[in-house]
Amino acid sequence: RADAALQQAKLSGRSRTFVDVHSGAQSREMVDALPAGEFLVVYQPIVDLASGVVVGAEALVRWTHPERGTIPPIEFIPLAEESGFILDLGRWVLRAACEEAATWDWAENPRISVNVSGRQLHDLEFVPDVRRILADTGLPPRRLVLEVTESMLEADAPVALAALEALRADGVRIAVDDFGTGYSSLSRLDRLPVDILKIDRAFVNALRPDTAVAPVITAIVALAQALGMSTVAEGIEEPYQAAALIAHGCSAGQGWLYGRPGPAAELARLAEAPPPPPLAACPALAEPA
Ligand code: C2E
Ligand code: MG
Ligand code: MG
Ligand code: MG
Hints:
It comes from Cryptosporangium phraense. This is Bifunctional diguanylate cyclase/phosphodiesterase. The protein has helices at about 1-10, 20, 25-35, 75-85, 85-100, 120, 125-135, 160-170, 185-190, 200-205, 215-225, 240-245, 265-270, 285, and strands at about 40-50, 55-65, 70, 110-115, 145-150, 175-180, 195-200, 230-235, 250-255. It is α/β, with parallel strands linked by helices. Helix 12 links the parallel strand 8 and strand 9. The termini are far apart. The model is unreliable at about 15-25 (pLDDT under 50). One magnesium ion (MG) binds near residues 58 and 177. One magnesium ion binds near residues 58 and 177.
């Protein structure tokens, strides 16, 4: 996994990465970074696409390294998963995010989405941890969304599925992150404890201003609707992408068009600002697919 992260970091153009520099001591350094207060949770708004109203946010972890500055999660999450430190880090992120979200008053029931790694889901303490954090912070379970990936929902993962089922029975929502990039078995999807499909950024990225056709997005939205799930599109950068997603029936989304991941104060500012002009002004909307 560390190799994969390194590979990916190299592909993205950074020659010397955190992984390169710290192939030996990285785990220890990461463990020390938690009590040292070097981890930080940032929040990216999730909006109702039709109105532009902020309905929630995704919590994303950052490591502010004293020498190297901000280290993105792609460079340390795989290492944290490998060493098991993700259990501590993930619990810390969840608590920080729930504590923060419990104070939000800029929407009716703003939701907080938190990424969960496979290692956490397989930990028998996960369900009691989540319940304790919700109780301690006073965040109603209905306002929490846990984001998992397709691979965590496989048939050979009964512990993970049982954990999700238990939390879902409490009212916690479950989202499948990066949907469409893994190998979900469609025959099982209707029996899985899932409420939301997050349409991977790759499909949003593939939208073009000059075409109204997006077969994969059409299919994911139809699938979600047939199964009583909702959709959230990731990585919306351009107005024409938002317009096309609305035309395809996708209800919510996130991306740089609406706001980058940032401090909670920035999220509140975005949420309290009047929504942007309606996308109906966008030509692509006038001619839906
Ligand atoms: P993800 O959960 O799919 O998060 C979405 C990623 O897309 C974030 O990257 C976000 O900053 C980025 N993004 C959002 N909007 C746009 C856009 O319009 N354009 C582009 N190009 N990118 C956009 P980030 O923050 O670097 O996180 C990367 C991944 O690291 C996350 O992907 C998630 O899998 C993982 N991650 C982040 N925080 C946590 C965490 O607390 N726990 C765990 N287990 N994983 C985390
Ligand atoms: Mg996510
Ligand atoms: Mg995602
Ligand atoms: Mg993604």
